[in-house]
Amino acid sequence: MNKIIKIQIPEGFELDESKSTFEEIILKKKEKFGYYYSVPGVSKIRINTRESSVLQVFKTKEQALAGNALSELSFLLPKERGNYVIVGNQGRGLEAEDYIFYDEFLSFAAEEKRDQFLQKHEKLIKQAAPLLWGVTI
């Protein structure tokens, strides 16, 4: 004869699969899932747990901040593009490089313009790094 054991998980909790074993069941509080969004023209990042008509929606606060920074940078970038780019690397920070291809978001027609832009907008570029290069700088 088989024996069946049923467990009633209390509301607001869920099974912690990573810590539970056959002999011991661990419950954890359910996380509130939502999303972060930014409001154009407003620097505050808000979290919402319901659907929203706001288009700038991000999974994390870091991504929402990076999205705001990207938006600002896009208005500040010169129209002329070129082989002089700014790239971000984990551990090495921001680097000014010369590329053969200029499909990078932060590309410039002249080395001097790139260097000036980097110096003037370094904080914004670092903030946008998670969406630009997938790294935090």
Helix and strand topology:
Elements: E1 13-15, E2 27-29, E3 35-38, E4 45-48, E5 57-58, H1 61-76, E6 84-89, E7 93-98, E8 107-108, H2 111-132
Antiparallel strand pairs: 1-2, 3-4, 3-5, 6-7, 6-8
Helix pairs in contact: 1-2
Please provide a written account of the structure:
- The protein is an alpha+beta fold.
- The chain is 28% helix and 22% strand.
- The strands form 3 sheets. Strands 4-3-5 form a 3-stranded antiparallel sheet, with helices on one face. A 3-stranded antiparallel sheet has the order 7-6-8.
- A hairpin with a 6-residue loop joins strand 3 and strand 4.
- The relative contact order is 0.14.
- The mean pLDDT is 80.
Structural class: alpha+beta
What's the total number of strands? 8
What is the string of helix and strand elements? Answer: EEEEEHEEEH
Rg measurement, Å: 23 Å
Q: What's the helix count?
A: 2
The mean pLDDT is 80
Strand order of the largest sheet: 4-3-5
Strand fraction band? Answer: 15-25%
Question: Main sheet, how many strands, which sense, barrel?
Answer: 3 strands, antiparallel
Supply the number of structural domains. 1
- Percent helix: 25-40%
Overall geometry comes to elongated
